[in-house]
Amino acid sequence: MSFVELKDVCKRYKVGEITISAADSIEFQIEKGELAIILGPSGSGKTTVLNLLGGMDTADGGVISVDGSNVAAYDRKQLISYRRNEIGFVFQFYNLIPNLTAKENVELAAQTCDDFIPATEILEQVGLGERLNNFPSQLSGGEQQRVAIARALAKKPKLLLCDEPTGALDYNTGKLILKLLQDTCRKNGMTVIIVTHNSALAPMADKVIHLRNSRVGSIDINKDPTPVENIEW
Amino acid sequence: MKSALRKNAVTEIFRTKSRFLSIFCIVAIGIAFFAGVKVSSPDMKVTADSYYKETNLSHFRLVSTLGFSDKDVEALEGIEGITVYPAYFTDVLIASDETEETARVMSLKAYGESNEVNRLSLTEGRFPQEKNECIIDGTGFRASREVGEHITLLADGEDDLSQTLNTTEFDVTGVFTSPTYIDKSTKGSTTVGNGSISAIIYIPEECFETKAYTELYVTADELAAENAYSDGYESIEEKLTDALEATGDKRKDLRLEEVKEEARQEIADAQQELDEAKADADKELAEAWEKLEDGRIALEDGEKELADGKAELENSRILLEDSKKQLDEGRAQYENGLAQFEKGIADGKAEIEKQEKLLDDGEKQYEEGLAQYESGLAAYNDGKAQYDAAVAALEEQAPNYEVILRAVEIYYLVADRIEQQEGELPPEVIEYIDSLIGLDEETKEQIAQLTEAKIKLDETAALLESSKAELDSAKETLDSSRRQLDSGRIQLYSGKLTLLEQEMEGRAKLNDSLAQLEEGEEQYNEGLEAYNQGVKELEEAEKTLSDSRKEYEDGVKEYEKGKADAEKELADAQQEIEDAKAEIDDLEPPSWYVFGRSGNPGYSEYGENAERINNIASVFPVFFILVAALVCLTTMTRMVEEQRSQIGTLKALGYTSGQVIFKYMFYALTATIAGALAGAAFGQKLFPFAIITAYGMLYTMPAMVIPMDWALTAVCLAVSAAAVALTVFACCKSALAECPAQLMRPKAPKAGKMIFLDKLPFWKKVSFNGKVTARNLFRYKRRMLMTVVGIAGCTALTLTGFALKDSISDIVEKQFSQLTFYDGLLAFESGEENEKEITNILTKNGGDGAVYFQKSVTVSYNGKNVTAYLIVPRDTEKFGKYYLFRDRNTHEEFSIERENILIDEKSSLLLGIRAGDEVQLYSDETDIHTVMVGECVENYPQHYVYMTEEMYKDLFGEAPEYNMFAFSTGGQSEDELAGTLLESGKVLTVSYKDSLMTTMTKMMEALDSVILILIVSAGALAFVVLYNLTNINITERIREIATLKVMGFYDKEVDGYIFRENLILTLMGIAAGLFGGTFLAKFIIQTAEIDLVMFGRDISVLSYFISAAMTLLFSLIVTLYMHRRLKRIDMIEALKSVE
User: Fold this and answer.
1) Is residue A190 part of a domain?
2) Chain B residues with CB inside 8 Å of A104's CB?
3) Are the C-beta atoms of residues B409 and B401 closer than 8 Å to each other?
């Protein structure tokens, strides 16, 4: 059984009289240590899938198996624990607590679990060893995103979920961030799932899941993923 | 305007319901409170004014030392627009069950209806229709009085009521309320009774004897057009007062002349009357003397007649005595005869009896003899028979023995032969001869015996013969005595017969003489009775005569006294006339007193109370509304900030600034205007209602008039709308100044930065939550300040409410447990003996008391007046056992000093005086004294001035007439002691501490409802403010919260992240609120006080505690509610995009 396995996952939203299907019989597997990219245009349901995976939303049907447990069957409390202990999130807009320094932001996440990587260490890893005591507003976008990644990694999550991590960043900074993610995957064996609409990023992933109209269109597997440095868009 | 935009604006309201409702509620509460309290004062005044106008309450009341004549009235009516209503009044006492009450009696112009001025309205019954009917006011009397009751008016002391009233007995036909007397507790003061009028009575004008009008009620057209208590009213009143007084000056001398002329006329009349009376008296006296003479003659005749009767009676008495004597003698004779007769008869009878007895004895002897004889005879016969028998037997036996003897002799012979023949006898014969030897002897013996018996028998025969002879002689004797007995009996019978005849005869004779005697006695008795009757008659006649003698003598005395009296009276009358003549010359021109409406008890106080509410209205609601406004404005500011990206979008789409602003204007104005309207409408009805109802306990006012104050409503609307509009405009303007692109991007979050706390050594140990909280607090200083001020405001308002309550509930306890120590107060009829008796009663019952003098005085300083009780203790030391004088703050104790007075603190505040100031003191406007204030002492209800006896004597030139006791019961039952006291007849009223406390507590409840409104309002505001602030906080930080949730923070951790901050702000707000509230409360307590009562100044710890707890509780409720909201926050929605 794969590390992450989705089977027949459905998610529908009701807006007034109309029911919108945001995820329709989604099925895919991701192995431990893989870097997967979920690719699709706006409204294809990729964020929905990420939310379901991250335990931020509940599926209306199907099985979401992460490391052998069915997340789709979790109740509210279990979902919180799941997010707390097993998931790291990276958002497009970083969502750092503006009132805490970079180090404190990381520590804020770290203090929620027993086994964590010390903030200083992880920040050094993402290259922010010098900016430990800066507040988010004193950091650039890329730096903030790095703090966000550091925050997510400090918890030693089983799964790192990234929602358009480069969406708000310029080309070079974006690349830097992607590099960081790819390195994290390669060096630490972290399972990373990136959601993006940018198909140019596809070559850097081990597995590319194409979503179209809330369904899985196709799944490509790169035997030999391209390092980020070599990708241009 | 584009319809899409309009739709957007409307949708926004529904989308953010809670924010919209918050604004609506805050504005509504703020405006309701502001407008409500603001209009309460005008409403109170309007209610009063319309009542005054409806009842045509006079604008002035005029009294004069000489009363008024019709000419005075004419002169006054000469002033333009003035209408004069002359009337009468007098102050009297009314007998009550246990006490006397002082009442003012006023005149009703016509039967069956009220006066044109100061119109009364009946709450019960009807207006008087007869001369002896009256109506009473519903609030005055201490003892409850009802329709149908009978009232007797009494004069005070030596006054003569008949000069003022021709009727003093009245039936109560109705109960009224009067616009002149709106104050339920005081009706003004007077010189009669205890000095304070406790009730008002209206009686028909006809009942007044007074010639001159005692008072004039004046209404002025100019004043009728003004509203009561307004400045305009006051200035016109001043002007008219001058005019009225000027008229008074003009009329003064004329009136004096009038009075003098009247008096002279009266004196002339009196002189004439006196002369006539003199003549009448002389005539009457002469007639009386004549009558007395007639009486004397008749009396003398009677006396003579009586003497005659006496003599006659004496004669008959002597006669009676003679006959009495004779009768007694006859009676004695008769008794004597009767006795002798009885004795004779008895003797005879005894003799006969004796003879009879003798005879009986003889007979008995005879019988006995006879019996003896017969028994002798029988014995003889028996003896004879025995003898004969014995003889016969003897004769029979003798031969037998002869035979035997012969036989034996033969045998022997035989035997001897045999023996001789034979030589010996055979044995059988021997044996037989042996037996014969005995027999031979026996028989010989028996023959001897028989011979003996024969001799005896012969003797017996001789005896028998002699007894036979005796018996025969006895028989003879017996026969002779028998004959003697028979003759004796015959003699006895004849004797008996003779005695009987004698007795019969004698008795007849005796009866005759007895009958005669009894007749005589009867005659005597009749005579005696007649005599006694005569004596009795005589005595009666004597008594009648002596009575009439006495009568006559009394008549003479009376005549003499009457004569002397009449002479004296005439002389007195003459003197009086002389005095009156002299008095006329001494008469002074009258003084006129012109009183405005403020002379009516309660009138000014009511106005002042309204003013006081106005004072509260000018501070409290303003503060209230400031809090509300602050919260609203911030809410709007934040809303605009929150929606900057939408503003940017709209702007980018090409909408003009105006169109963009419209949406927020629409939102804010809809909430504000709706809230203001609702608040104004609700507040202007509720608050005045509650406040006027509360004051209704003190004043008799008709149903309140609560008009909507449209101007105020408009102002409220305009101001709140303008304020909100301005804020929205300012916020939007600054937002719109940025370019759309910038707007659409999230506003650069306010930079986080190190705060000074970071530099502190313990900072590192603070948890992240703690750090976040602290940094947040310092980061959003404006927001923090706003929250703190909002919460502080609400806490302060709540505290003020509780403090007001404290200050009121406090005073009863303080007054009666800390400042006074008596169990009761009693009023008595002044007089040393009464005082002693009451002291005795008190000490006998284990209690004690201190005497003092109390009367109403006016204390005046710089034109300000306070009506206070002047208290003069007899013994200041003893008085000190019941009253404690101290400074409220320092608790320094004072005593009454010789040189200056003590005055209650409230009076000193009202007058604006301090220790050492000199004030005017008077009970009569013509007798004003200046005294120095020694100390201002703590006291809550009423106003009091204390001075020593010496000082009183110096000031008023007379000794105080002690009339009150403060006493302790010594553990005795209050009712019992009160009963004993009142039974003594010396005590007018007894009031106990407990009932005083109850009365006061009741009065204080009037303000309680006002306070409740305050507390509830403040609480409501606090709640809404807290809700709103928390709501804003959450809305603004929703991304932060969503992030935490995504990171797997538990609900509790998320709550803590938000609420720790809130809690700190709330606590800071509470602390600030309690601090600021202390001052606000003090200020408001002072402005809210009524003149008669000083409120406490201390705020209890409990009030602080409750205010804080209430705010915390609201905070908790809001937190609980928000907890649910936080739980429901949709992380995905919140994080999806940046708005």
Assistant:
1) yes
2) 768, 771
3) no
